[in-house]
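FIELD: query
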Amino acid sequence: MSTEIRVPQLPESVADATLVTWHKQPGDPIRRDENLADLETDKVVLEVPAPSNGVMQEIRVPSGTVVTSGQVLAVIAEATGAAATPAATRAAATTKPARETAAPTPPRAAAAVAAPAAAEPARVANAVASGEASREGSRLSPSVRRLVEENHLDPAAIRGSGRDGRLTKADVVDYLGRAPAPAAAAAAVPAAVVPAAASSLARAPAARPPAPAAGGRTEQRVPMTRLRARIAQRLLEAQSTQALLTTFNEVDLTALQELRARYKERFEKEHGVKLGFMSFFVKAAIAALKRFPVLNASVDGNDIVYHEYYDIGVAVSTERGLVVPIVRDADTKGFAAIEKEVADYARKAREGSLAIEDLTGGTFTITNGGVFGSLMSTPIVNAPQSAILGMHKVQDRPMVLNGQIAVRPMMYLAVTYDHRIIDGREAVQFLVGIKDALEDPARMLLGV
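FIELD: result
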């Protein structure tokens, strides 16, 4: 009996997806709910789970193919006999009771038993690729799984720092940084394994092309990912359909830093999350948006749509590109709730587990280029929104205060806005409102 593996129902706003990679090949054993393949849309990466246990019988769609909802990707055959039994169970089932193994073992039989034991390190190193990985493998995000498979690692041997002990990409990178060099690892392999390993390496093809000669001029052509192509399309649309203009100001973060230093330990102990800058900027932006609602509006044809709710997008940079998950009804949430939601979105973005619902909508966006060291920039509006706030690096600078020069932690702020519906006066006053709120954080708590 065989089962067809089809493309899951794609979100309503997504017409098709690209099959990025297969995690199983024909003949590989499959467990129920194990991820078989990754599908990349222009917003998120979707997983294709196995509906039942079995063996991969046939792959009908190669990697790199554009697929649609319901399309057949592969066929799974129902496992029978030994194939239906996991490797560990088969080993236990074929092991004789202790009283039967007490008898002397013939030399040839002893050699046969020793061979699997000697090959154990190689089996563990290739557990992920061979389909015998531990249950942890099915809980890995696509980016982490690729990194584990490419380096032939055992996920169970790596300590996870994510929620419920999940592995993050940082965990794997840190583990690779602490792993012994290839020469040391080869020295640790039992002598009985070395000849076989050497012969298999001699037969294996080169893992990567040879390095170019010194002074060589090489090029590499790589197609855009769907997310990168979508980002490019949206940025071009924003610049070609909106009259974008940016205004700047600077904010003294002395009071805010003192407030964080005073309460950060108690805040983290009470709420289980660190007190960062983002919750203050979200709250300050909402207070300013309530005073100047046109910056929370959008253009629809010849109409201006004023949104009477505050769904704030927080830009998160990932290896695949920039994504903007949405903190919905942010005006009704406290500082701790905002910090938790932003931290959770950042973790999901790194793991590639954001849902399509996390990225849709939004009335205003905040982006923080300061985490990368940017001192000043002009962010591009996330259409169909009409404005975006840019945060930047905090830098100590000499400032004149009451006729005296003092060193203060300063940050440049930028707001890019659609000049079709937002006048310069409103944009400047909006940014001044954010500056005033951040320089006197008590105003946000008192609502003044």
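FIELD: remark
The first strand starts at residue 2 and ends at 6.
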